[in-house]
Specification:
Length: about 230
């Protein structure tokens, strides 16, 4: 199994007092800006660095041997990730693309490892997140074997609500620049199938389009969660 590790909400860029190791880390990094659609990393680059998103939204995809693209995760502000040099993961066939203008710090792995040694409490967070990613991967395999598309799509929407959702008076708002094709790549189906199922969810009152932007509102989380069982 290829291992891509990330911390979707590392929160290490929060305001910190003078002399805090976080300030030293940022001082040794290189800030890079990417336009919408720019590719940050690809399978040939092998950067052997650690990265921290300080603004914007990125998507991580993997190209399978069959040629199909799978969406692995979405990264936003405070997301932290790295290549294969840390934790002996792999960087094969992984692409990272900016979904909107984004800013990312890049650090040499040695610099980041020194930062970890100064903040050992982060190691526990790392292990928890890696365990969650392995669990998510196993769940995805189970979904492909035994769940229909509506169930798989409901699981993704519920997960998005937990990771990126903002509570509103009517439900949960998810403000991500994610297309139906991206959702299809995440659950292993065709875009048209996702569009049909989303239309059904709207008709049943589970979801609705927000009034602005690409946001989606989940109006009935309970019904979506019931589809997963």
């Amino acid at each position: 199994m290829d291992l891509f590790w990330s911390l979707p909400s590392a929160s290490i860029v929060a305001a910190s007092p003078a002399g805090d190791p976080t300030n030293a880390l940022l001082g040794q990094g290189t800030l890079r800006r990417y336009d919408n659609g720019a590719i940050l990393s690809d399978p040939e680059s092998r950067p052997e660095k650690t990265f921290l998103c300080v603004s914007g939204t990125l998507k991580v995809t993997k190209l399978l041997a069959s040629g199909r693209e799978i969406l692995i995760t979405i990264l936003q502000t405070d997301s932290l990730w790295s290549d294969r040099a840390i934790l002996n993961g792999y960087w094969r066939e992984i692409f990272i693309e900016a979904l909107e203008p984004s800013e990312v710090y890049a650090f040499d792995n040695a610099v980041f490892e020194a930062y970890l040694r100064s903040r050992p409490e982060l190691l526990t967070t790392f292990m928890q997140k890696i365990s969650e990613q392995v669990s998510d991967a196993l769940t995805l395999l189970d979904d492909f074997r035994g769940r229909d598309v509506a169930s798989r799509l409901a699981r993704v929407l519920v997960k998005f609500s937990q990771q990126y959702g903002v509570k509103t008076d009517s439900g949960v708002r998810i403000d991500l620049p994610v297309t139906h094709q991206d959702l299809a790549n995440m659950i292993g189906t065709a875009r048209e199938t996702v569009s049909r199922n989303m239309a059904r969810f709207r008709q049943k009152g589970y979801v609705r389009d927000a009034s602005t932007g690409q946001a989606l509102e989940l109006l009935d989380l309970g019904s979506l969660e019931a589809l997963i069982v």
